[in-house]
Amino acid sequence: HSMMKSTQLIIVCGLPYCGKSTLSENLARTLHLPVFSVDPIMSGILRGGMNDRSKAGLASYYVAEKLANEHLKLGLSVIIDAVSGKKEFKDVWRNLANQHNAKLTIIECACEDEKLHKERLENRRRRLFGVPELQWQELDRWRKEYIPWAEKTLLLDAGDSKNENAEKALN
Length: 171
What we know:
Layout: E1 8-14, H1 20-31, E2 35-37, H2 38-47, H3 53-72, E3 78-81, H4 87-99, E4 103-110, H5 114-123, H6 136-145, E5 154-157, H7 162-170
Parallel strand pairs: 1-3, 1-4, 2-3, 4-5
Helix pairs in contact: 1-7, 2-3, 3-4
């Protein structure tokens, strides 16, 4: 896309219910880029008959990586929509960017307001096959396991408007 000077691997990451998918979709529309989102991929894997949710979750990252790889090798930028909380997943994205000499752009979504975060959790209904919405206790566990990026990230708060966050991300 003309707004982008080089091939980019754009990672939209952060805890669940912080606006990753909404932001990814907004960026994809504006930049005309594909989004590889691990939750719908995981849903497809589960629908295909894999019953182990943790294996399906892991597989969904590697499917997203393979899809992104196919685009990056053509010189096309991509957006990844994934929590990416663990070091191994951060390494997957780092290695992929390095392999294709793509700029790694990391946009981290957060929700500083706990009350708002709980509200978002309670109100989300995506209806993805096999992918249940989390309970607050599970989200807390994810928060404790979330490893910060070594790289510089753009941090966006779900408490700000969607348009404001999309504008910051585009800049």
